[in-house]
Amino acid sequence: MDPSSYLAVAIATMAVVTYIPRVLPLLLVRGRIQSTFLRSFLYYVPYAVLSGMTIPAIFTATSTPVSATAGLLVAVGLGLSGRTLLTVALGASGMVWLVEWLLAIL
Questions:
Q1: Does the residue 3 lie in any domain?
Q2: pLDDT greater than 80 at residue 1
Q3: Taking CA atoms, which of 30, 38, 73, 85 is between 20 and 30 Å from 63?
Q4: Structural domain includes residue 99
Q5: Residue 33 counted as domain residue
Q6: What does R_g of the chain's alpha carbons equal in angstroms?
Q7: 3-state secondary structure string across 44-65
Q8: pTM for the complete prediction?
Q9: Where in the sequence is the domain holding 98, given as residue range(s)?
Q10: In whole angstroms, what is the distance from residue 103 CA to residue 48 CA?
């Protein structure tokens, strides 16, 4: 199989595989979900997945775990205090920059 046809088959396969989980709930679930456990589980799935992808990336994106921890704590604190996403991102980035700068001069 030549590389271009292999690539086309790979892309088509990935498209089908990612499309199936999106369309199956629409086909299988007809009405409103009555189970409070299932509804609460489905409500928190996006937050859990986002946290599972973001938290490890935070600790590998900086040069030291100390600056990553400081940035994470600032982000959590700003987020819990109701700040906007831009404020949280700028505050966390500023804290990481400040801690890495301080660690470089010490």
A1: no
A2: no
A3: 85
A4: yes
A5: no
A6: 21
A7: HHHHHHHHHHHHHHHHHHCCCH
A8: 0.66
A9: 62-106
A10: 32
Rounded percentage of the chain residues whose pLDDT exceeds 70: 100
pLDDT in tens, 39-86: 999 899 999 999 999 999 999 999 999 999 999 999 999 999 999 999
Q: How far apart are CA 58 and CA 69, in angstroms?
A: 8
Q: Is residue 8 part of a domain?
A: no
- pLDDT value of position 31: 84
For residue 47 the two structure tokens come to 């937050």
Decide if 93 contacts 71 (C-beta within 8 A): yes
Residue 54 vs residues 49, 73, 106: alpha-carbon distances, Å = 9, 14, 29
Instruction: Tally helices (H) and strands (E) across the chain.
Output: 4, 0
- As for how many domains the chain has, the answer is 1
Size of the chain in residues: 106
Residue 2: per-residue pLDDT: 82
Give, in order, the Cα–Cα distances in Å from 95 to each of 57, 71, 74, 75, 87.
17, 5, 7, 9, 12
